[in-house]
Specification:
This protein is mainly alpha-helical and 371 residues long. Helices cover 70% and strands 2% of the residues. The protein has 2 domains: 257 residues, no CATH class; 33 residues, no CATH class. The chain is built from 15 helices and 4 strands. The longest helix is centred in the middle third of the chain and has 27 residues.
Length: 371
């Protein structure tokens, strides 16, 4: 049984890599590529919220920074996107004749591959350190991260001459390795790249949530004040976790941008960041597997509902969140792990509750008294 459980993730990865591309059309496959890229962001949020107890409402900042990094590089390295002066065409609309200095490094694909996760990581590390060193936590931490999100959103939204402002940067008509980014063949390769990056992101999160470092994170979540009394300074731990989460969101944003075909300040909207938190809550926070399930299920359900009833999704999303909070407080994954349908039937009196072991409970109680 244990061997089977260990093989399940690899079986799912094999299905995603080989079976889904064979049975889904190009449109649906592209959607699943986006879902899996968003699952990386869900993992990052679970790392800081589910394991460290830091509810961040500003992860859209780092998600968008990764997207802008890859979009700027693609536009610079695509000849068809260049205007008469050799810079992206949209600059001509605002009378800009010289490429802004911060665009220059993105001529290099190597720099872009590094920048799309290093820049979000640096921004996250600086923001996190400034917050954590002042011992800001709880709801105040959530408010500050949302305020930072609004600052970045309005700043990017107003920079028409630098990054095309509200219009964003299009990538679907750009070229990558001689192919259009929006072509079916390139989208298939990007889908496979996303499927490979997702388990890598999972292993990174697993590394930081296991061992002594993971124990410290859980201690921060459960009782930070007691952790300080034991001699630990939680500031470096929280800063590192927030930095890693920012880097993962940057990678997620880059993968999502090349598969959606555009990046814009809307990636940093308040509603977008709140939806990211909902994915984790629905899937099951503090599990790592749950956020992947939540991001995929919620976004797929959103596509289905939007295709049938475009205006009904917000109501369905609200009802889904209420349903999960009331009947599945541990999320979808936690619900299955704790008995699934049997626990649901037991809640309504249609099935006996899960088996208990009074002798074991007595032994545990005795051990607690001794300790």
């Amino acid at each position: 049984m244990k061997i089977f459980r260990r093989l399940v993730p690899w079986i799912l990865i094999a299905i995603a890599l080989f079976i889904l591309p064979a049975v889904l059309d190009d449109f649906r496959l592209n959607l699943f590529g986006r879902y899996f890229s968003l699952a990386i962001t869900a993992l990052a949020i679970d790392l800081i919220w589910g394991y460290t107890g830091l509810l961040s409402l500003g992860q859209g900042i780092f998600f968008a920074l990764g997207g802008y990094a890859v979009a700027m590089s693609l536009m610079l390295n695509t000849k068809s996107e260049a205007g008469g002066n050799g810079i992206p065409k949209f600059f001509e609309n605002y009378g800009v004749e010289q490429l802004p200095f911060f665009w220059q490094p993105f001529w290099s694909p190597t720099f872009t591959l590094i920048a799309m996760w290093v820049i979000p990581a640096i921004v996250a590390g600086l923001v996190g350190y400034l917050i954590f060193r002042n011992r800001i936590k709880g709801v105040y931490f959530s408010i500050i991260t949302q305020a930072a999100l609004m600052v970045f959103y309005h700043f990017f939204n107003g920079q028409q001459k630098l990054i095309n402002g509200t219009n964003g940067l299009k990538t679907s008509t750009c070229e990558l390795f001689g192919m259009l980014v929006g072509s079916p063949d390139m989208q298939l390769w990007l889908y496979r790249l996303t499927v490979v990056c997702l388990p890598i992101a999972f292993l990174i999160c697993r590394y930081f949530t296991s061992g002594r470092f993971g124990d410290v994170l859980i201690a921060i979540r459960d009782d930070e004040q007691r952790l300080r009394f034991t001699g630990f300074n939680p500031v470096p731990f929280k800063t590192i976790v927030f930095l890693v989460a920012g880097a993962l969101c940057g990678i997620s944003g880059a993968l999502y941008t090349v598969q959606s075909g555009i990046v814009s300040p809307q990636y940093m909207s308040i509603s977008n960041s709140i939806e990211m938190v909902i994915w984790v809550a629905v899937g099951g926070r503090g599990t790592l597997v749950g956020p992947i399930i939540g991001a995929t299920v919620v976004n797929y359900l959103r596509s289905l509902v939007s295709e049938a009833l475009p205006e009904a999704w917000l109501f369905v999303q609200g009802a889904l969140f209420i349903f999960v909070v009331i009947l599945m407080p541990d999320g979808i994954y936690g619900w299955f792990r704790n008995g699934g349908f049997r626990s649901l039937l037991a809640a309504f009196g249609f099935a006996p509750p899960a088996r208990t072991y009074p002798q074991l409970d007595d032994e545990v109680g005795a051990l607690d008294e001794v300790s």
